[in-house]
Queue: 2 jobs
Job 1
Amino acid sequence: MHALVIYAHPEPQSFNAVLRDVAASTLTDSGYEVEVSDLYAMKFKAVLDRDDFSTVHDEQRFNVTLEQRHAATHHSLANDIVAELDKLLRADLVIFQFPLWWFGLPAILKGWIDRVFVSGVVYGRSNIFERGKLKGKRALVSVTTGGPAASFGRDALNGDLLDILAPLHRGVLAFTGMTVLPPFICAHVPYAGPQERVEMSHRYREHLLALDRLKPLEMPRLADHLEEIESSMKARAR
Amino acid sequence: MHALVIYAHPEPQSFNAVLRDVAASTLTDSGYEVEVSDLYAMKFKAVLDRDDFSTVHDEQRFNVTLEQRHAATHHSLANDIVAELDKLLRADLVIFQFPLWWFGLPAILKGWIDRVFVSGVVYGRSNIFERGKLKGKRALVSVTTGGPAASFGRDALNGDLLDILAPLHRGVLAFTGMTVLPPFICAHVPYAGPQERVEMSHRYREHLLALDRLKPLEMPRLADHLEEIESSMKARAR
């Protein structure tokens, strides 16, 4: 079993780094081969552009999807993309470790998704959701927040964290066919003392040891929506 | 009246560029002074790190919020951040023009927010939502999607676009006090023919001309949540 931890925090001593290390050691103890992509340490290129490909499919007009499919077919993806794709494709479990910045991913991590989730490789026209090309892999989001736990929730100021994470859970992970495990959340981290940090890291170890017993999040199935997709294709064809 | 259009697309001939130009011309016709930040053309730095600041508040540990506040006070933010902040602070209307990538912002645009939405300048400890420092400004999201219109909606495969955009609408724009206008959405753009593109760009001009009559999205108010925030602060202090 392989695991990949995608880690995005600029401070090596951050609590996110502690959680990254908890994941690596716990999963190793559980028999996983663990790889870590430390995006800041790697100075990972965040911005998708023509330099992502050594081929040019259409020099007149840069269409991301078409260039990605072309480069995937012609083995002309940039080396850093190929390296991350290899890690992703051999992983049975993919963990995203990051601080919630502006209700979303730090740009370096969003760029990892923009660039590494290559069309034709991780998804295709009708290869989405239960037909996605990453089917069989499990994904876990481990996120820290600056806001206090009480500020998150259906009726709370910031809304529910599952809603905030839905674009990642549903639109990235389930979209490509992955099974999405319940996220691990540490709230109000900048204000947590040493004892509380130790407790949170222990709680994370327990979460990871219990992975096989966690009930995945419910996600839509393409099969239940074929009519709506076909009707819009027909409307377009008219 | 000043308007700022933040535009993030790697292809100068893209339909997003058409919409950017529709906004610039329509708003100019309406009497606005319009500025455009073309993030790809500017090669805008997407990744927040120590290079964002010419001062160091804590050399042992890089805490983004504390370094931002320190640099804002000491006028030591990087030049590109200062330039964008100046545009943002003088704008009465801020438009975000981008293609939806992986249910979210292209990384270069997320990086613009991570770096330019500086703590202490656009928000502060209790200066959020209706007390946010960008209060009085209006924000409009103009987004294109690859998926067909029928794939978006409460019961559709991809879910409702207002939910997909909620982290931006609520967690960035309303969070800093901005009034959030209903978004302008063009679906299935890669498959739209020339005539349909013309129709969509006319529809956008109408949307922009009607801005003053659009009912802003409803957003939470800090005043309605003070108890929940205070209780978590007390819990922390114990």
Job 2
Amino acid sequence: MAKKYVYSFGGGKAEGNAKMKQILGGKGANLAEMTKIKVPVPPGFTISTEVCDYYYKQGKKYPKELQKQIDDNIKKLEKTMGAKLGDSKNPLLVSVRSGAAVSMPGMMDTVLNLGLNDEAVKGLAKKTNNERLAWDAYRRFIDMFGNVVMGVPHDDFEEELTKIKKKYKAKLDTDLTADQLKEVVAAYKKIYQKVVKKPFPTNAKEQLMASVNAVFGSWNIERAVIYRRINKITGLLGTAVNVQAMVFGNMGKTSGTGVAFTRNPSNGDKAFFGEFLINAQGEDVVAGIRTPEPISDLKKEWPKIYKELNDIRIKLEKHYKDMQDVEFTIQEGKLYMLQTRTGKRTGLAAVKLAYDMVKEKMITPKEALRRIEGDQLNQLLFPIFDVKAVAAAKIVAKGLPAGPGAASGQVVFTADHAEKEKKKGKQVILVRHETSPEDVAGMDAAVGILTSTGGMTSHAAVVARGWGKCCIAGCSALNISYAKKQITVGNVVIKEGDWISLDGSTGEVMLGHIKSSSSPVIAGVVENNAKAKKSSIYKMFMQIMAWADQYRKINVRTNADTPKDSQAARRLGAEGIGLTRTEHMFFEGERIWAIREFILARDKEAREKALKKLLPYQRKDFEGIFREMNGLPVTIRLLDPPLHEFLPNEEAGVKEMAKRLKVSPAKIKELVTNLHELNPMLGHRGCRLSITYPELCVMQTTAIIEAAVNMAKKNIKVLPEIMIPLIGTSNEFDFLEEIVRITANAIIKKTKSKVKYMVGTMIEIPRAALTADTVAKKAEFFSFGTNDLTQMTFGYSRDDAGVFLPEYVEKKILPDDPFQTIDQDGVGKLVETAVKLGRSTRRKLKCGICGEHGGDPESVKFCCKVGLDYVSCSPYRVPIARLAAAQAVIG
Amino acid sequence: MAKKYVYSFGGGKAEGNAKMKQILGGKGANLAEMTKIKVPVPPGFTISTEVCDYYYKQGKKYPKELQKQIDDNIKKLEKTMGAKLGDSKNPLLVSVRSGAAVSMPGMMDTVLNLGLNDEAVKGLAKKTNNERLAWDAYRRFIDMFGNVVMGVPHDDFEEELTKIKKKYKAKLDTDLTADQLKEVVAAYKKIYQKVVKKPFPTNAKEQLMASVNAVFGSWNIERAVIYRRINKITGLLGTAVNVQAMVFGNMGKTSGTGVAFTRNPSNGDKAFFGEFLINAQGEDVVAGIRTPEPISDLKKEWPKIYKELNDIRIKLEKHYKDMQDVEFTIQEGKLYMLQTRTGKRTGLAAVKLAYDMVKEKMITPKEALRRIEGDQLNQLLFPIFDVKAVAAAKIVAKGLPAGPGAASGQVVFTADHAEKEKKKGKQVILVRHETSPEDVAGMDAAVGILTSTGGMTSHAAVVARGWGKCCIAGCSALNISYAKKQITVGNVVIKEGDWISLDGSTGEVMLGHIKSSSSPVIAGVVENNAKAKKSSIYKMFMQIMAWADQYRKINVRTNADTPKDSQAARRLGAEGIGLTRTEHMFFEGERIWAIREFILARDKEAREKALKKLLPYQRKDFEGIFREMNGLPVTIRLLDPPLHEFLPNEEAGVKEMAKRLKVSPAKIKELVTNLHELNPMLGHRGCRLSITYPELCVMQTTAIIEAAVNMAKKNIKVLPEIMIPLIGTSNEFDFLEEIVRITANAIIKKTKSKVKYMVGTMIEIPRAALTADTVAKKAEFFSFGTNDLTQMTFGYSRDDAGVFLPEYVEKKILPDDPFQTIDQDGVGKLVETAVKLGRSTRRKLKCGICGEHGGDPESVKFCCKVGLDYVSCSPYRVPIARLAAAQAVIG
């Protein structure tokens, strides 16, 4: 028996079904499926992807069985439709569309009205009793076929059309009469002949085979190949070709066309949602010349059709078990479905749909989890702008989406000013070149933060994310003048007090006040607001998180530096702290003076004196964190940044420091100069500092262990994990681990405490990953600092890469920003290597990740794959991480 | 039969030999060997390292056979010596020394005069007829035994001695009489009793066994364990213990002691070389109280002894086939050899010894190559300071040894000044904070360059090394004031015109003019000087290089940016260019203005216009290099540094640029600010520049290929290899490779040339190494840029690591500076991975190294091991690389 290459559908029967996407493509498989379940679909047939595969493997030849199968199917179609291809009386018109298993822009798309020629056009005119319609269809077909199949520039046709419209003073295409359209057809044919060097084919089968050829040919044109390479689409046989009888929505007052969603894609409500146009083709809905009517109006106008459509809606949803995005056409009172596919949706809708469908017993909780993307879940956590208001807003600049949510406020340029305005009850956005630790109170007072320099790990970005506050960083297009109290960006001038709006999820800065809605989830979960807890969104969120926790295997921790952040994170589901950055504690109030005194000190004794002042602050911080995390592990990283970060940058700061520490300003400047580094990212920081100044390590260990001992006395269960940062060699680790143990054990012994602690390291330097087996001899845990690891593995400075990274992502040199989604081939390989090597030495080595990637769904899945014990992310990313961790298990 | 643990030597017989270092230790094996070949050695025995091994494996117990074997050997020794341990009439005194197979500081060293007690001391006095000698020996023994074996602080003894000296108004120890020494002995015993809580042991065997215990115990004390860990000494069983009869060089006018080398260790001359002291013990030679006489005087004074010693010298050299460093003692006219070992030597001596011994047919050329270290060979290539003059010089600061050799000159602070003084015939040292491209002429005029900032890859360092010129960089202790025309360093002020001297091999900056000798090798090889070619050093050098080339398998190329450097390198044996840095060509004269115009350009058109000006310069440079390297491959790297390196730093430069390019200084400043990067090392540079500005890649490719075509027309064989730098992903490479090929092929086609070229990449980013299999799909060669690879693998900025790297090496956290010797465990692992992955895709992938490591012997050996095809180093390191490559084969 001959191999089957063509699959028919129509008349309630179909040879394919929805599961056959691999050989019928997505579109073909769904057309077959709809036919099978008795949804009215214009009949047709699908030429399988195996033909495409054969075509390329055999040097652009077709299987010999093919022509006959196509011919048979045309005959069948002609019979079903009672019309004949190319017939001058009752011509069958078809559409030809490509369709692979995965949607793939770049390939040949669609030819409509195929089958028209000088004879058939007359038949169509007669059949439809609409000469104008027939000739309009004909000229559109010549344009489409000429352009898509034969490569005639569309503009050539368009130019001619404009000429003729001018001649007859027609404003719109629709102003042209049938006779004028005949003139257009004649002119189009000439253009075709001129470019193709052959006359326009009058034989309908010839038209069809040329279109089929063009579809298969388009599978391997450069932009399609590049698209597949870039999107890593592999394992496909090729594209299928769908040939389907044309139906017309523009055949008069009993015809029409529309698009609809089976539920509301915007908020997830269980209500039919869509639009339709009477006497129109699909293209007219898209073109936007006429305003479509809401689908509910159909009920009044054509109650029968509406009922039929609504029944189909219910049928499709039941069948596909998901919200569908459908296209339909009504030809002279008869309804046809042209397409169905899973509908795109907002975050809120995604959550509600998944939740509702479980309640409706349509899907399982597992399936519900599979359907919610992390970014969609995220939309429930933060204020979001009103969609319409945003669409109308003027975007003036784009920066890095450093902190989540949406915020509108009046511009202020100093932290002090932000605090004052806040007290007056105003909503402000703090705009700075960059923020520094002194700005923290003002940052807290502002509803959003906007900076012109600094990257995703700048001070502003890190602080804002920790708080779940909206922040756009590194918006380099802004020209900020503190003196003039204004921002210039292009021709726009924004003055102090002007309203601007920030979209923290896109990095867009917009003019004016844009309405936004706040999140009942955060109010309920983090702020413990009773009213919010009664909201349906809150309940959905809690249910979905509960489902996620049933499935996930990996733990989710948080990166938090304060008791407040720790509390928020714990409420959002964090199961411990994966990273406490102790340096953030050095900036507040008096502390900065102690650390500056330390930097200025000439000898160990003076340094120790300065550190003594810091000790009680650090101890108190740790006590607060231990209290909040009672019973959960807390990883504390020893000092990481280079010391110059604690010194003042500006003249005024230098003077203040000189005065306070009783030295000359020149001395301070000299210090600043001496500590200046060409590449601070690769400089004297992390463990390198503690090796030079072991007293630093001693002070921090003392603070951690004393805090632990004090809390343990209050019956709080403390599980401190001391993390030594920036280890590149096992010798560095061994050197400091010894100091930590001696210091810690002495305190534990002296206080007769039973506190247990661990000592481990951050793996963030490629060399540490490559030699992880020796590092793990002494290190009890690894925490992957994938921010720095990405910087060093790629050789990208996160602060500077803004110049080329967006271009790289745009040119698809990189699939994603590697600082947002972990680069599995390079950085991931190092992580995997380190886990394997580390566990070859220490079988039960605890491994986690504490870079920003800990809150990125794809990265979380990668972490599960390589066997990490936990991921750690900023408090407000914890829910996403929980969801992603569940998805990693569910698959 | 009982296992043998103790090996005797003496009376012309020995149970061990030189090959038994593993179980007898180095010292014990050589004592046995000398005994065997009838060299007079005081008899004794060695307790093997296997006892040490047993001792630790069995919980600090000895094999039960041991005591008997020791007792038997003592008896044998007593018989040989005709004396008895602890005897009051004729006491046998012995020394006890540790000695592992590898010399290892940190362990217990030596106990002398063992066997003395209140009885034996009398016997010794009588036997030697020297009461003072006997009591002096006794008090030294108590001190040594107490301190070394029992841990009594040496200072406790010293304090007591000082007290007694004061009491008797004795200035020196030797001023004390026998009776006074008896008082010292009594006091010492009290100290011993007080600390040890036991009386000083009078039983000689007890003394001996306690000492043996102490030696074995010292094997595992912390500092010895750390020493072995740090120096990666593994596979040793333990230490041996050598017990040997004491001989005394201080028994009067017919006694004496000395140290000697069998040839001159300073220049390699075949002449006996050493010193001796009459009536003295070994310690006295070291103490330096009396001035020893040259060994030649022994000939006059004791011709018989001299002859005997000279015969031994010849015998030992013949036997060991290498220059020996020996110790001897003459006791009452009888000669004893106490030690022999391979003598340390200068570079010149190493070369001459190896060369001469081949000529004398003592060793093979292979063995000669094995014996010359790269640094020793290097000493032949550069001026070196007179050893004595250096010893007397005042070192005022230490910087990085950035350029080789030695230089003395008068201080100048500007490049212009250097040129002027040079014209006057003066020798000057150019001192700058850092140098920049405008300083090149002045740098050429100076005999040496000294900078206060910048690392081993700073402008000054790279340029100087290329020229083989002495340079010290990053000497941060210097406070240079251009305004005051002086350097302040501590209390020292160095003014313009003052003489200073630089040792480029140590980084030491010294005051005053120090004599140095220049290198006939460079004069002969590079400068083609006929007279120099007649020198013996030149001949030796050429012979040794010829031997090396016979054995080595890896190619040696050079890093050269100019025809002049290419010529020098080729004469020194380079077999091609592994790295031409095109950016160095951008600085000279008019070129800098063209590149600055490029940077300032607003659009592609303007950029191309600027590049057009650069094209002829680049083409001409490449033509010159191709001409010099006729027939050899030339690897040319596309632009690498970030663009801001081409902009002026200072106000004057900004003004000049503004004037020249007809824009406002504010505009230039804005440009400088915009291009500023926080971590330029990880910024917008390398291939990232060419991806942003593909026209840059087009211009450089055009220059390379046009130059190649032009030279090919002149019958020069050109083999260009175009290298794309800083690749992190295969997409980057593929993107640029296509541009290179399109550009190059168009030129080749147009000119109908047959030039062949390769396109490859520098592997210097960890990610490229980790994904080398995909990079190698298109890349035809890999060149490892181990400078940057080391920076990123360790996370060290070479410019900034000066703050902690020296400390790291000192604390042995790192075994070596990883920028000098490749880090095999980390960076090396990446190199090895990349070679394997790359060749898994492209079997014959050409792999080389072009970082500074290409000129480091250990690194070259590593490169051979991992299968690289070539190493490439700066021109003046080529000979070292050739030697190291031969050694890698010889083993």
